[in-house]
Amino acid sequence: MKKGLLVFISLQLLFLTSCWDSNEIEDLGMIMGIGLDYNESDEDIFSMTNQYVVPNNIEGTQIGRSGGIPYQNLTLTGSNFFQIIRENSLETDRPPNYTHLKSIVLSEKLLKEEPLKQLISFFLRDHEFRRTVAVFITKESSSDILAVEPTKEMFPAVQLKELTQNHDRSLYIQDTLKFGEVSKKITEGSSFIIPEVGINKGRLRLLGGGIISNKTEQIAGWLTPQEIGGLKWITNEVSGGLVAIKEKNSPEDQAVLEIMKANTTIEPVIKGGQLSVQLKVKSSLRLAEDWEIKRDVFQEGWEDQLKEQGEKVVKEEIEHVISIAQEQKLDYLELGMWTSIKEPAYWQNNHQDWERIFAQLPVTIDVDFTLTGYGTQDIN
Amino acid sequence: MKRKRFVRSSSLVEEQIKLEFHNSEDLKHKTIQLDGLTLILLYLDDISDRMVIQKTILSPLLTISKDDTKISPTDIPDLIPMASVTNIEDHSTISRHLMDGCTVLIVRETTDDHVYSVKTTYSVKRSPDEPVNEPTISGPRDGFIECIQDNKALLRTHLKTSDLLFEQYLVGKDVVTSISITYLKGKASETLINEVRNRITKIEVDYITDAGVLEQLIELNPLSVFPELTSTQHPTKVANALLEGRVAIMTDGSPTVLVAPTTLNMLLQAPDDYYFKWIPASLLRMLSYFTALISVLLPAAYISLISFHHGLIPTSLAVSLSKTREGVPFPSVIEAFIMELTIEILREAGVRLPKPIGSTVSIVGAIVIGETAVSSGIVSPMMVMVISFTAICSFAIPNYQLSLALRTIRFFFLFFAAMLGVYGLLIAIFIVTTHLIKLRSFSSPYMEPFAPIHFKRWKDSIIRLYYRVGKRTGI
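Structure tokens for the assembled complex are given below, as produced in the milestone run.
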């Protein structure tokens, strides 16, 4: 009898919870993307755009539902982000839920005024924000970016994230910068690049990247798409794309090589207390497009000239990026990281002085191409 | 009602019996005078075969009598050679012999009675057809019937070995049912056989109507939903179990045979698994484990994801789910309960209805639930899919008793998931797993070979490994 009572009481503990924390999925304000902006006004310096999913407007197979815009952008202003989020409840009946957040867009103005560390403080602390959210920077206002009607996806925020998934197609696209990586870089105290997004003829377009300085944690400059390509060669992130070679004979003639595989190794060398870095790029490529009439791929040594020219192109790109970085004294090339891994003793003694060392660091670049073929057919 | 004891008194044996049967009309009584002996035949008209009585008892006796000089009452069994004759010493058992369809032959020499029982049973029985609830694709298609003698015969044809033993027990106070413990001598352990014997002899009931009742009487955990004995109508299943060293319990009047001890693994096996090549058979085995899991967990998991942990659903699915649930008036928990209940009702209705009308249920079910409920917005299409997939999965479980148990447990899981989400689901899983591991069926662990773990026996669990030539034990 006593046992029965005990079981009954402990069951009551369970029953009395009655759907504790239960929240039906249709009652959620699922948010796909957020955009953060800076306001010139005195009181409410921040504005935040939340991209809500509007489930009713999603076109489905069910009849009787008209397809409107499946998302709603709600821009509100405030002096901190938590306050803005709670103010959302004044306008929307469904409480915002960030578990399905895809992208965060930061505006240039915001990063000029405020350090990144403080900006993302709330988003790092809250448990609903995933560390896989893609981070972008834009020269436009971020609410405009989130308002661009997507062409193939349902939500602009999703399209934005998916764009960076093409980094194996083009040399100019940086791999998705995840929110977790941003927090990692900030903790490490290193500079890094945030992918830049812009609007081109009413469409979203990935541009180069914005440089975040490790000193101020604010925007310190911009990289063009070409420079992003050079950066990817250095940081061993190349997984596709092409190398275009201008032929000497005539300006129209060109050869395009497709990158099949690429690998970069960074080797710090210390000679007489002086640090230098050896950068070795190994890549295998394939002749993808050829405007040269005279080339005969069936003759041995056809690839020698191409290989040499291609290596030169890449080497120049890399040198250009290194010179920019050294000029800015910002090591977003991860050279410091490799030195600390491979020469820990040197790093231990000199890391306070790294900024100066980096600015004058001699880097020898060695690019080695292997041309594996000319595709399925050659008609020249 | 107390069984009437046959008290030997001055009155005649046949009169006593007639009195015991309340002078029932179908108790027939014939008297033959034969060479100074009085032969009295007693039989129950409906369950004794008159032709057999005529051929095996009457005609030999009537033809031989004229030539012989003197017949002693003890000679009678020899005079009717074709029949199986047993001498009844204890006159109190006469009525039981009569009820088995035997003809009782009382040979009276002045006042001395010799009572014999001659087997002349006539019974109504169906042919050993394939069991309806356990169809197989290949392999033997016979099934047990309601007559224990025939069931024994079926088992003997499947297991042609002299080690096959039947031990008969009589259970019941008002109506006596004969129960037979069946095992292979040398395969089944003595302790197991003794345990079965003990449990059966301990039963004290007025009557047993079916093996299902017997099963509940010899179980030790009446509060558990899991069947402690496997019940099957397949002779091959029983034969396989006996070869594995298990004990079968047959009940007269029931086509269901119980097998002990039972493991969860055993309940998820189908005889077909053994007849196909091992790779597809193993995949089928995995499938039945998978369906068992799905049929228990899917609705609960769906509920806990959709109303507690939205972040665990892939984004595109979450978006389309929130679209399909738009405008559904009930919380998903209530919705799931309504749908589960509907499915259970439909299923029961399908079982109870006669076959020609049975299809009506499926049509009504398909239209009402599948179409109308969704298009009128009472339930979401995803919920219909989840619940019907769960139902289909539970149909795929080989054993009906287990499927019934899992159906019950599903509601338990649903309840926990509705209250505490994935956390509650995990609590429920812990509770059920603990119960299963603790459960014993005739002193052997229910979760064998998983807990306690016996890797060597896994070759006939989630997978069914190939047979090897030259190995003594087949599986």
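The interface with chain B takes residues 14-15, 17-26, 28, 30, 32, 53, 55-56, 58, 60, 62, 97, 99-100, 102, 128, 130, 154, 158 of chain A (CB under 8 Å). The radius of gyration of chain A is 26 Å. Further analysis is deferred to the final report.
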